[in-house]
Amino acid sequence: MGRRIPLQIFSSSMIRPSKHVVHVVIDRCKECGLCVNFCPTGVLARGKELNARGFRYVIPQYIEKCIGCKLCEHICPDFAIFVSKGDKSLD
Ligand code: SF4
Ligand code: SF4
Questions:
Q1: Looking at the 3D structure of the chain, how many domains does it have?
Q2: Cα dist. 46→8, 61, 88 in Å?
Q3: pLDDT tens digits for 12-68?
C-alpha cells in the first residue's frame, strides 16, 4: 500500500488536538487538490515534500478544524486519504 502516516503530527498550528485523525497514503496522492478544495473547513493543504511520484502530497495543516465529515475520504479518486476517530477524551 506504500507509506502511510497519521498526518495529525504535521499540523503546524495545533492549538488544540483534533478529535479526528486524517491519514494520507503518501505515494497514492497525485496532488489533484480535490480534497483541499472541497474540505468545508479548510483543513487540508498541499505540503512541501514530494512523494515517490514527484507530487506534493496533502497534509492536514489545520487539523484542529477537522469536523470528521469524511468528504475528503469520499472525494479522493485514488483512495489516498481517510479519516479516523482520534482521542475520545477530547469530546
Ligand atoms: S484528492 Fe486524493 S489524490 Fe487528490 S490531492 Fe487529495 S489526497 Fe491527493
Ligand atoms: S474529514 Fe471533512 S473536515 Fe476533516 S479534513 Fe476531511 S473534508 Fe476536511
A1: 1
A2: 14, 9, 28
A3: 334 456 789 999 999 999 999 999 999 999 999 999 999 999 999 999 999 999 999
For 75, phi and psi rounded to 5 degrees? -90, -20
- Measured in angstroms, how far is the CA atom of residue 53 from the centroid of ligand 2? 24
41 lines ligand 2 (CB under 6 A): yes
Closest by CA to 3, choosing from 36, 33, 28, is: 28
Residue 72, H or E segment: helix 71-75
Domain containing residue 84: CATH number: 3.30.70.20
Query: How far apart (Å, rounded) are the C-alpha atoms in residues 45 and 65?
Result: 13
Asked whether the beta carbons of 74 and 64 are under 8 A apart, the reply is no
Full domain range(s) for residue 51: 4-90
Question: For the whole model, what pTM was predicted?
Answer: 0.81
Span from the CA of 66 to the centroid of ligand 2 (angstroms): 5
